[in-house]
Amino acid sequence: MHKLFTIIRRMSWVSVAVLLGACGKPPMGGPPPVLAVAQVSVITLQPQRVPITTELPGRTSPVLIADVRPQITGLVKVRRFTEGSEVKAGDLLYQIDPASYRATVDSAQAALAKANANLHSTKLKAARYQELAAINAVSQQDNDDAAAALEQAEADVASAQATLQSALINLDYTRITSPIGGRIGKSSVTPGALVTANQTTALATVQQLDPIFVDVTQSSTTLLRLKRELASGQLRGGTAKVRLLLEDGSTYPLQGKLKFSDVTVDPAPARSHCAPSSPTRRENSCPACTSGRCSTKA
Fold this sequence. Notes:
Elongation Factor Tu (Ef-tu), domain 3; CATH 2.40.50.100; 2 domains; four-stranded antiparallel sheet; 35% helix; 28% strand
């Protein structure tokens, strides 16, 4: 039994030696093994500015908007513009019947001529009374009355001039012109309609759409956090660049910039308002159709 165990143990050592020899030597006639080389990448870290992008809902609004209202009462004779067209500042929009106002101007001119004639006569009379009073040919009371009449005549001339000026202004108001340049909307009256001075209903509305404002809202919490980071130096302030994302998902081709942030806060949702501005294209400058998202990059 001992001999059998010795034989088995010797055979095991031989097997191990054969295996070790097979692992340690390449096969006869074969190439030596190739060791794999590990690939190492090196990246150098450098500090750089990273923009902060915020998307906010907003709606476009005109830079200037003016309601056209009459300043006198009268009948509209003609309308001189096409609804929805572009108008310039000073363009004639409506013509009110000027007949009665032209007659008022003529009457004021006649009253001024009469006052000037009376002033001339009174001035000559006052000068004569002053000479006669110097030689005691007339009483001092008559001289004082002549001087007072001269002052009264001068006041009458000034009053007549003011009346004429007022009549001329009212006559000019018969021509209703555009106060600003921009796109004019629908007319609320037609020729033949009676309009009154300073009526509540506007005849038309003119909106300047180039450039255009985009009113967006931002939570007061976010605004306060940004202000703290700017004050601590974590963020650097600069001119924020604005891109408009329209309702259909497309990006407006022109870039805008942040103009101002409103100091008032809406108490209900605790949001503050800011107004970026952007240049517009004529084919897409309708405030009603340009609501969407405002992407602000600071």
